[in-house]
Amino acid sequence: MTRRAALVALTLPVLPRVGLGAVLLALAVLAGVIVGETALPLRLVGDVLAVKLWGAERALDPIDAGILWSYRLPRTLVAAACGAGLALSGVVLQALVRNALADPYLLGVSAGAGAGAVSVALLGIGGGAIGLSAGAFGGATAAFVLVALLARAAGGGPAQLVLAGIAGSQLFNALTSFLIAKSANAEQARGLMFWLLGNLSGVRWPDVTMALPVVGAGFLVCLAHVRPLDAFSFGSGAAAALGIAVRRVQLVLIAAVTLMTATLVSLVGSIGFVGLVIPHAVRLLVGPRHARLVPASALAGAIFLIAADIASRVLIPGQVVPIGVVTALVGAPGFALILIRNRRRA
Amino acid sequence: MKIEARDLGWRNIVRGVSCEIRPGETFGLIGPNGSGKSTLLKLLAGLMPRAAGEVRLDDVPLGQLTRRQVAQRIAMVEQFADTGEALSVRDAVELGRTPWLSPLSPFGPEDTRIVDEALAAVDMTGMTKRPWSTLSGGERQRIHIARALAQQPRALILDEPTNHLDIHHQLALLGLVAALPVTVVMALHDLNQAMMCDRLGVMSEGRMVACGAPSDVLTPDTLGRIFRVRAMPMTDPEDGSTLFRFLPMEEPR
């Protein structure tokens, strides 16, 4: 087969599914844009897009158009990126550490990112969105290394990893609270606590230009590694015997996960349960092979978080529930189901 | 494929092992528990970090090959490899194609054929949709072998492949392995089964203390010294082959 023929053979059969995914995602984004405290008419969406993207001339209600373009759309796009990124992180971590309970939230990576971002925000190291993300990345990396070392020192079993994750989360959350108590004024403290619970209210276009490229790149990295991820099914020893450069693959994938988690936490705070529950739900639908699991989880995560964001806006009229609260309300029962299912299998 | 080991070592588990495994032969590795058999097998497959000594595959140093190139030459079946994923039998065997696939050469009809053949070789053709978690220990072992066969290696390294198998499948597996046109290195516990190998290496406390044809290596004297049993060679009247009956060592009075 020539390279070109191979590419065609590779892409042709998946085109309908890619198309379906794109349509589902577009519908979810559409819902995220028009549903809210002020419901916006569907026609407005077309008009605003025509004006903003093609420079068409339409008569628009400036307030509605402003809500749609400056608030709803960036917010929905970031929610989608965030859901996809967290779900991908869960898929990758679960495969690499071979633990059904692995996700950035439970392994303390989110807490580390939060602590890193808060120290940057309060101690004034660096500055701006890049500084926050860099701080979050530093914190997330530190947390991951600490949790991995602790789990290894404790014997390296699946239970040890989860316990080490809890210890890491507690430590970094305590660090965050300490920093806030020490350095923040009342106003800042309230803002930071609200942000830490996961909050999309403050999202604007610059956040989109951070979130989308990072998650897009992370998605491509994961997609390029679907075979190595499969090969980890029987452990890293078996992966090596199947010709996988284990160290390099682990390093690349964990770096991708840490970068995605850190960027997302620095933008919207730490949102739990998406990385844990979405991959498991998707496995039930498309099976455990990563060639399907990776794209399907990204899509499901994006749609789930858009839905959670809509719920967070309309659940209590006139008030926004932090999105982390919504995902936890759905995710905690899902987590319970995973625990029960795992026990049955063992 | 020829596999040469020179002064292989790993911590104190394997110490200065040199041997040459000839192309196409079935080489058995025997020795008491903890004598270093499993570690030596992993060393031969290049799967142990910070190993001492050198392995050459058809005169090419293993260190000069990428992980992927090694996996195209050697397939390894370890003991106790298990998964919590809900993989099907076919999924598990398809993993064996990993070293031959890349984004530009995806899984194709030829790979499907190879996987089908591997499944047929271990007598699992009718069970391809069964989930991993429902398989018995013996079935899992046969799937691991099928995965190794799907890798189309030139050498197969097996760590106690007959573990967990009932006697019918033990004999079927050993027959299959002996008939394969590839080099096979396997650790075995059953010394009577070891008799069917072309050559045997005897491991004791990390060293290879004997190497040669089964009839030369498995002598009552060696068996007494290394395995601490009294071995009585007997002759099968049907085909004249030698069998051993094992008795506890007589305590010195």
TrEMBL record, chain A:
GO terms for cellular component: plasma membrane. It is a multi-pass membrane protein. InterPro entries: ABC_BtuC-like, ABC_transptr_permease_BtuC. Keywords: Cell membrane, Membrane, Transmembrane, Transmembrane helix, Transport. It is found in: Cell membrane. Pfam families: FecCD. Signal peptide: none annotated. Its main location: membrane. GO terms for molecular function: transmembrane transporter activity. The chain crosses the membrane at residues 77-97, 104-123, 129-149, 161-183, 203-222, 229-246, 252-278, 290-308, 320-340. Belongs to the binding-protein-dependent transport system permease family. FecCD subfamily. This is ABC transporter permease.
Automatic annotation (TrEMBL), chain B:
InterPro entries: AAA+_ATPase (IPR003593), ABC_transporter-like_ATP-bd (IPR003439), P-loop_NTPase (IPR027417). PROSITE patterns: ABC_TRANSPORTER_2. Belongs to the ABC transporter superfamily. It holds the Pfam family ABC_tran. The keyword ATP-binding applies. This is Histidinol phosphatase. Keywords: ATP-binding, Nucleotide-binding, Transport. It comes from Pararhodobacter marinus. It comes from the Bacteria. GO terms for molecular function: ATP binding; ATP hydrolysis activity. Residues 3-230 form the ABC transporter domain.
